[in-house]
Design a protein that fits this description.
The chain has seven helices and five strands, in the order H-E-E-H-E-H-E-H-H-E-H-H. By secondary structure, it is an alpha/beta fold. It has a five-stranded mixed sheet, sandwiched between helices. Strand 3, helix 3 and strand 4 form a beta-alpha-beta unit. The longest helix has 26 residues. It is globular, with a radius of gyration of 16 Å. The N and C termini lie far apart (about 40 Å). The model has no long low-confidence stretch (mean pLDDT about 95). The structure holds zinc ion (ZN).
């Protein structure tokens, strides 16, 4: 599959399918993390979802997406699917993706971004405290899956696609910055354990 075409499609799904759901979720008091599942064959969307930790602290964007996926009456096999996460999955979510049988995931923001730009340090703290790993210390290519940073794919894309994707990247960053500010301003009122 053409990596540049895939990156362009994943950016579109973040901007047009995940972000509108996340804006609604943040308005209710949830975190900014979202995810989606697409078919490898034609890159069509199976479903998108967003964080719902107010209902259950395990409903991270990724796990909430998987919960909805397994509620579908019929669904493709996970071997035929792409898993997209707006943020590099935490250890719970990367395990959930593994147990569900995906052989890949793609993400927009890194663990370091979650800590530095979103004031959500929990992914890296869990990696360090539970597993003794420094940032980036997990195996991104292993027997189960390959982890792919969208940033690397955009950086490797030819022009003029790269320029177009970078403009879209900035729009997406701006939207997340607003949503993050809104979440952080209201989070002292919620009872999410790691908020
Ligand atoms: Zn997670």
């Amino acid at each position: 599959m053409d990596a540049s075409r895939l990156a362009a499609r994943l950016l579109d799904v973040i901007e047009h399918d995940i972000l509108p759901l996340t804006a609604q979720g943040v308005a209710r008091g949830n975190k900014v993390f979202g995810a989606a599942i697409l078919r490898k064959s034609d890159l069509s969307l199976v479903l998108a979802e967003t964080n719902n930790e107010l209902e259950n602290p395990l409903w991270h964007g990724e796990v909430h997406t998987l919960k909805r996926f397994y509620e579908m009456a019929s669904r493709p096999g996970t071997g035929d699917l792409i898993f997209l996460s707006t943020h590099e999955p935490c250890t719970m979510c990367m395990s959930a993706i593994t147990w569900a049988g995906f052989d890949n995931y793609y993400y927009f923001f890194s663990h370091e971004d979650s800590r530095d730009a979103f004031a959500i340090p929990h992914d890296l703290r869990i990696l360090k405290e539970v597993f003794g790993l420094e940032p980036g210390g997990y195996r991104r290519h292993n027997a189960f899956w390959d982890a792919n940073a969208l940033a690397d794919m955009v950086a490797a894309a030819p022009e003029p696609e790269q320029r177009r994707m970078k403009a879209q990247w900035r729009r997406i960053l701006d939207t997340y910055a607003e949503l993050s500010t809104r979440y952080q301003a209201g989070k002292s009122d919620n009872d999410i354990p790691l908020n």
